Amino acid sequence: MLQLRKKGAGKMDVNATDGERGNVQAAGGGPMTSLWSRVSWKKPLSLTYAEESSENPHLERTLGCFDLLMIGIGGTVGSGVFATAGLIAKSYAGPAAVLSWILAGFGCILSGASFMELSGLIPSAGSTYAYAYHSLGEMPAMIAGCLLTLEYGVASAGSARSWSDKFESWLHQMGVEGPVWMKPKDSSIDLYAGLLMSLCVGIVLCGMSAGKQLINIVTVTKISVVLFIIVVGLTKFDSSNMDPFIAPEHINAVDQVVFGWPGVMLGASASFYGYIGYDEVCCLAAEAKNPTRDIPRAVFGTVVGAAFLSTLATLSLVGMQKYTEIDVAESYGTALRHVGYHWAAPIVEIGEVFTMPVGILIGFLAQPRVQYTHKICDNVGTLIAGFGLIGIAVCIPFKYLWDFISLGILLAFNLTNTCLLAVRYRSCLCTPACINSASNPTAAVVALFLGVSWLSAYHIQESLLAPRGSTDHWYMHTYGPVAAAVFSVASGRYICRENGWNAL
């Protein structure tokens, strides 16, 4: 990987203003500095510009809009739909898995708008971490860094486990039996996943120039495979497999309400895994040739492209085969054989096996950039992270990682939206005195947003996803949503009136 090294880490640029020096000293912590002032200190934007121009000679700006778009699409398209489309359709939503992907895509477009705006305002490496550091403070930034590690690093390890299942299935179809010790049947150990993760770590250590060309080539191939699945699958589309479109709901073994509209919502939550990648583009802002122009374009293109391709690929899957018969481990290959396309199944399986690793590579590619913004520098930090993720890939099955990854994604997206609110209601972003002003109404706006987000999640959980025998089921289906809506509107009006705003 390119040398992620900050020689001046912790030092103030000589051209910084007196206010910025004072803030840096306060953040460093003197005997009279309170804990709150340390954790809530916000990094001035002018300090970021100084660091980007003087301390990052090793981060060459080599990525154009096409490169960023390929990185975004390579990290989303295929990696999610290959790994999760069959599971969502069979276990959660049935044929309505198509709606799950659309709903998740709509949510990602809304959050993507926040990333697009913030990437133009704060063109710094680190994505949500950088945005939180500028708008919310040091403690929220630290939380953002942990969430991004969960989203990028751990997600890449989870994808490696999913790839291993497909690789083993492909070997079996070829009549080849791999060594039993590589993936013992009665053990969670998976050395195939660890080997792939090791390869990705090695490629990242070689540098961006080598990785960029590989990513571009494999991403174009991956898009071709997905388009092949869509076109070939839709030629054998059977509308009877879509009946009923909204499958009857029931409670599964872990007390979740699946299928029906609750299953659609669960599937939408799981589908967020298939959209990991568009925000990874923002982590590479320090290496983009024109970040304020190219990053927003790449983010928008990635989200729209991923939503379009993933939705159509899922539609072709549930149209070819009844959702109850879908093979979760090898969804598309099995479905193509089911409709008689035995010649197409090997093409898809080979395409999946040889293109899924690029999503894993891109996921890990963003991890050193997050560490870089934390001032965890040099190749040593990359090696430490790599060894940790190799261990996760070897030891922890994908089904245990999935929910944690989705949780990290949703929280990171929500935190980014919070950052945008904070930036919008702090007009003097570049002025340290304004950033740390106690009279700024940003806290009230952020508190309202988080409160409404919590109420929305709680009511969806209790009204749609909770078991039907729960004691508050009647309340959640009658007065609960109305009460939450009234509270949200009343709180917004109160904040507007207190601050003299015409609208929130």
From TrEMBL:
It is a multi-pass membrane protein. Gene3D superfamilies: Amino acid/polyamine transporter I (1.20.1740.10). Pfam families: AA_permease_2. The chain crosses the membrane at residues 68-89, 96-116, 191-210, 217-237, 257-278, 298-320, 340-364, 376-398, 404-423, 443-461, 473-496. GO terms for cellular component: membrane. Its main location: membrane. Residues 1-23 are annotated as: Disordered. Keywords: Membrane, Transmembrane, Transmembrane helix. It comes from the Eukaryota. GO terms for molecular function: amino acid transmembrane transporter activity. It is found in: Membrane. InterPro entries: AA/rel_permease1 (IPR002293). PANTHER family: CATIONIC AMINO ACID TRANSPORTER C-TERMINAL DOMAIN-CONTAINING PROTEIN, INNER MEMBRANE TRANSPORTER YGJI-RELATED. This is Cationic amino acid transporter C-terminal domain-containing protein. It comes from Aphanomyces astaci (Crayfish plague agent).
